[in-house]
Each structure stands twice: as C-alpha cells, then as structure tokens.
Amino acid sequence: MTPSRKNIAILGAGLLGRLLAVELANAGCRVSVYDKSTPQSPQSAAFVAAAMLAPLAESISTEASVVRMGYYSLKRWPQILKCLEEDVLFQQNGSIIVWHHQDNSSALHFKNQLKKATAFLPPTHLSQNINKDELLQLEPQLSRQFEEGIFLPKEGQLDNRELLDALLHKGTQLGVQYHWQHVVELDQFPGNEFAHVIDCRGLGSKSDDNQLRGVRGEVIRIHAPEVELSRPIRLIHPKYPIYIAPKRNHVYVIGATEIESEDDSPMSVRSALELLSAAYTIHSGFAEARILELSAQCRPSFKNNLPKILHHKDLRFIHVNGLYRHGFLIAPAIVDRLLNLLFENRSPLANDLDIEIEDASYEHIY
C-alpha cells in the first residue's frame, strides 16, 4: 500500500508521537493521534526535558550506536525545523565542561573516558582542552574560579516546548486528527481501520511491555536576567554531572539527577539545593534568579538503556520505546528508521544506524 492510502494511528503525543505524525502526514498518510493528556502535555518527559543535543558528552556513558544516532539527528533537526511554521530555538555552538579544583581527579577520569569513547569519531568532532583565557573567551560570564575546561564542538540544544507546540501546529495544518484526554490500549484496535498502529506512549506502554522501566530525572527552570550564557554548561560534580541549558529570554534549565525509580512525585529539597548551589558556583548571578518550575519526570528505558522498535510480522502493531534520557538527541534517527521500515528506504542513511528492530509476538492483543 502506498503512503498516501494508509490510515495510521499513533498512541502518545509526546516528542516521538508528534514528530512521527508530521512526517507521516507529509508522506500523504491519514494520521490519528491519541493521548491521555492535553495538548500542553505538562506531565510528559518531553515537556520537562532540557533538550540538549550532546552526543559527545553522552559518549562516556552510552553505546557508540547512540552517539552515531545523535550526530545523524544533529544534521536532521535543521531540516525538520525548516519545515515548521514557528521559529524554534536551535543552537549548535558546542558545549563546555568545567569543574572545581577539588574535583580535578574526577575531571581527569572524565577526560580518559571521553578519549576512549570517541576513538571512532573524526578529528573535527573531538573534544578540546581549553585554558582559563580560552574558557572566558567562549563564555565571558563564567565564574573566574575555573582554571580550565573542555570544549565540545558540534554539540547543540533546542527549545523542547517551542518544538512541541510547532509540531502540533504543523500536524494540525497537515490534517492530523488529535484525540486528547483519550486513554487507549492496543487491544482497542482489533479491526482493519488502520494499516498501522504505532505505540509511542513511553511508560504508558508498560502494561504491554514489562521490560520497560522508569528513570527519574529532576529539573529546575529559572529566570536569571543577570546571567548571559550562550551555550550549555556541564559541571563535573562528585555525585553526577550537572548541566545548565540556556533558553530564550534569560530562562535556564538546570538538571542532573538520574534515579532508578518510577516515582514522579515533586522534587526533593535535597535535589533542589544541590542543583541551585551548583548553578551559583558557575555564575553568581543565579543567586537573584527566580524559580519558575521544579519538575520531575520518568524517562522510559529498557535494561540496556537503548531504544527499540518492536513490531508484529505484518507491521500492523509497532512499538517504539526506550529512548531513555536521549529523546531529543536521537528522535529524528528513530523516526527515519521507522519510516524506512514502513515505506521502503525513504531515508537510506538511517539504515546505517544500529537501531534494534525486533519481530515481537504481541499475541495477547489479538
């Protein structure tokens, strides 16, 4: 069946669901999206995320396949954003890693890990050790207590909320039918109304896949008029790397915590104090910032923290999940690989990515 003749249902209107809906509608499909939340999706992992596009920084703690997907997606994001009606913040000015003097041993360990993890990358993508003067040239407002740092070229970020809104608007323009506050399960699609039913519900799919687990993340969003940082900053910390991602109008997203838990209750006082204290050491202007949000959300993950595309042999039911904390980093790669599965090599380069695709039984839903 050609794309223009297909009716396709998407379960879940987070990042994957919205991006996939736009791509499928652009291909001529008739798309229906079902989501249990509202269009704003305030509780989704995508709404809370910092949306950093940092394959090099992530290379020390993830598989090489995720790094390759990240670099592929960094090229795809500008193409995707160009087709949207709204202007979505997108930067690719690199990112910076700093540390305090007492954490020199942790920084040396990080450098050694980074060197090993990026051995397969071209020289233009490798990290650069920079001294204090070079550090302040890149970010003049950084605290002068940092004697050195690491510059990661090619890294980027985008505004997650601007993107989610723009994808929704574009999908609506293309005729995508959105069904909000609509709880659905796979067994509600027994007939042949839809050629494909694609499950992008994240942890909402756990009842259909008991291999999924939640990984909790906590994020603070603040307004800091006295701070001027132009690119994401990561601070090597004794417990975990802390990041600060600048958005428009002096809004900054601060985060770090990664807890093996599906608890999505409000952020703890301990976490808030640690994150804000770390931010203050990076720039004293954060002391006068105003807290806009304290948020916590769980990211859907498999045991190996790698994504999967699971499908029944006739591709009628497809399950896309397990993006872990890499959602914005790898979403275009996942979507393009899925489109190849549906439409015969629509994005040939995506076939070179090592994305796990399994023929799953799904027998219990028939």
Give your account of this protein's structure:
By secondary structure, the protein is of the alpha/beta class. It has two domains: about 5-50 and about 160-210 and about 305-365, Rossmann fold; about 125-155 and about 215-300, D-Amino Acid Oxidase, subunit A, domain 2 (D-Amino Acid Oxidase, Chain A, domain 2). Helix content is about 30%, strand content about 25%. It has helices at about 15-25, 45-50, 55-60, 65-80, 105-115, 130-140, 160-175, 270-280, 325-345, and strands at about 5-10, 30-35, 50-55, 90, 95-100, 130, 150, 155-160, 175-180, 195-200, 215-225, 235, 240-245, 250-260, 290-300, 310, 315-320, 355-360. The strands form three sheets. It has an eight-stranded mixed beta sheet with strand order 6-7-5-12-13-14-11-15. Helix 1 runs parallel beside helix 9 and helix 4 packs across helix 9. The longest helix is centred in the first third of the chain and has 19 residues, at about 65-80. It starts with 6 loop residues before the first strand and ends in a 7-residue tail after the last strand.
Q: Any chance you could write out the topology, listing elements then pairs?
A:
Layout: E1 7-11, H1 15-26, E2 30-34, H2 45-48, E3 52-53, H3 55-58, H4 64-82, E4 90-91, E5 95-98, H5 104-117, E6 128-131, H6 132-138, E7 148-152, E8 156-158, H7 160-173, E9 177-179, E10 196-199, E11 213-223, E12 233-235, E13 242-246, E14 251-259, H8 269-282, E15 290-301, E16 308-311, E17 317-321, H9 327-343, E18 356-359
Parallel strand pairs: 1-2, 1-10, 2-9, 5-12, 10-17, 16-18
Antiparallel strand pairs: 3-8, 4-8, 5-7, 6-7, 11-14, 11-15, 12-13, 13-14, 16-17
Helix pairs in contact: 1-7, 1-9, 4-9
